[in-house]
Amino acid sequence: MSTTIAFNRRGRGFFPQPRPGSSEEAKRLEENYFELSRHIQESIVLGQNRRLSLDSLIELYRDAASPNWNGYGAEGVSFEAYCKADSLLRLLPSGLPIPDLSAHPDGEIAFEWRVPPRKILTISVGSRNAMTYACIFGSEEHHGVVDFTDDIPSKILELLGELTAA
User: Fold this and answer.
1) Is 140 contained in some domain?
2) Structural domain of 34
3) pLDDT, tens only, 88-138
4) Is 30 helix (H, G, I), strand (E, B) or coil?
């Protein structure tokens, strides 16, 4: 008897996340998968960008958690928004350029990537289970709102793929 593990195409860091199985062998494979993923994220080479981004997120949250953090009446970034941003950072596929992080006056946290000559992608998360995005890829512009609960939405993965494509 052989055992296989099926992978979905949703973003879960370095590898796609395995679909859960019920057999003991499937549970062992899932444990091995998460152990490998954890080691990769902790590695010096592969995990450094993620650690730098997580450190930047903590600093941003500390600076923008209070109301009026910008002196112009901005809403404070809520702990829920911080948690959504932290989750997104941990789910992003490895190998992406480090995003610039910023707080918006509405209390959301924005991730922005710029790839010359004309590729810009901004994703914002807040305390809601939604993700707002806007991008310019050459002469094309896209924007919208997608649900964000446990996994990176397929539309966002598509845009991230286009951002990094040659």
Assistant:
1) yes
2) 24-164
3) 998 998 778 889 999 999 999 999 999 999 999 999 999 999 999 999 999
4) helix
Q: Which residues of 57-71 are buried (b: 16+ CB within 10 A; e: fewer)?
A: beebbeebbeeebee
pLDDT tens-digit map of 15-69? 444 455 678 887 777 677 656 655 655 555 556 778 888 899 999 999 999 999 9
Q: Which of 100, 136, 133 is nearest to 118 (CA)?
A: 136
Let me know if residue 2 belongs to a domain. Answer: no
Q: Which residue type, as a one-letter code, is found at position 52?
A: L
Cis peptide before 117 (omega within 30 of 0): yes
73 within a domain of the structure (yes/no):
yes
Identify which of 125, 97, 90, 95 has the alpha carbon closest to the alpha carbon of residue 113: 97
Closest by CA to 109, choosing from 153, 148, 164, is 148
Q: Please count the structural domains in the chain.
A: 1
In a domain, 137, yes or no: yes
